[in-house]
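Record 1 of the preview.
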Amino acid sequence: MPTAPTSISGLASGIDWKSIIDSLITADRASQNVLKNKNSVLSSKLSAVQALNTRILALRDANDELRQSTLFSTKSVTSSNADALAATTDETSVPGTHNISVENLASTGQVASASKTDKTGVTAGNITLKLNGSAEVTITNTATDLDGIATSINGANAGVTASVINDGTGYRLMVRSTATGAQADIQYIRGADPADNVFQNGAGVDASLRITTGADAAIRLGGSNGVGGLVVSSATNTFTGAIPGVTLTVKSKTNAQDLTITVGQDTSGIKAKVQTMVDAYNSAFDYLKANGSYDSVAKRSGPLFTQSSMRRVLNDALTNLTASVGGQATGYANLAEVGVKIGNDSRLTFDTAAFDTKIKADPTSVKTLVTSVAGTAYTALNTVTEPTNGIFAGEITSINNTITDINKRISAMEAQLVIRKDRYQAQFLRMESTISSLKNQGNQLGFDTANKGTQST
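->
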């Protein structure tokens, strides 16, 4: 009886037909491998196009920053002695130099009660307080100890704070105005009880000690050595409006005469934006050069070697950045004349010292030049990087579609190879089955013959 077909390669035939099938499928897969290799090349190209697009977007954004006229409105301010007089500014300030002296710093009013050997056993009753710029107020108090009176004063929110100190010989109640300036000076503070022995001597005579007097801060605009000019005061150490767009803060009277406050254009921010644009262009240029050239040693081209449209984008950007602007003053027609030039390696360079000289001499011409050039470059770059219809979007979509189509073809081929392999295996299994059957028949015939010979003997 024939044996069942077997899937063990060559069991009946002695032929390693599984290896034969693998070789046949490998040969059949050659065209599929070609497509896979093509997809690998396309994937590298896709990554390179996307990476270059990112760099071009950075260049676009850098030009977008430079084309904003507000960039040139930012001002800077410096003080010849910031430890004595600090200054900040906004865009409304006007460039210029101002001579200022610090005449006085703002202070709070502060008084102290007579010294007591004990915190307790004091008399005050309700407390009457009068600040220089306010009406008299009455602070409710029933405490008969210094800590309790301090609590009553602090809870009244009357423009002063109180605390108890030890002066080394006894305890004192310290009262201090919460604000600075002459308006916050303490004119008087006393208890309503005739026997008040905290702020008075129990006989109605003021016994409190004035520690400091509330005073306004004062600065002298102009003048010299404390003479002449205009004295301006402020209840705080901060002055706004003395110089339009500038906030002044007095800090010390030490070395504070005849100081210089200088307001100018903030060129550091502008230079930083120009440098960012230069760096963005060079980054895109370097990437395209590295990935768009042919390596004669390795005999291999970069993934962007055939992307002429990508090269054209960068060439157009350089053309826009180096173009001249009509109607400009002599020496301000193009970026090269203010410090942005093409180096020997075709990369951009930025001479900040030359830019400083130009913008100091004619800030308006520099502003017009930079915003005009950057505006033109931005418009062109914004078109090519547009996420729907731009050159990069079109190229990325095209590559992705091609990769998708090839993947579909590879999948279809793989399905056919599975069918083909199954067919090869089925054919060899039938062969094995046939050979096995023939061998079984031969063995049976030989057995019968041998049995007959034995019986006749």
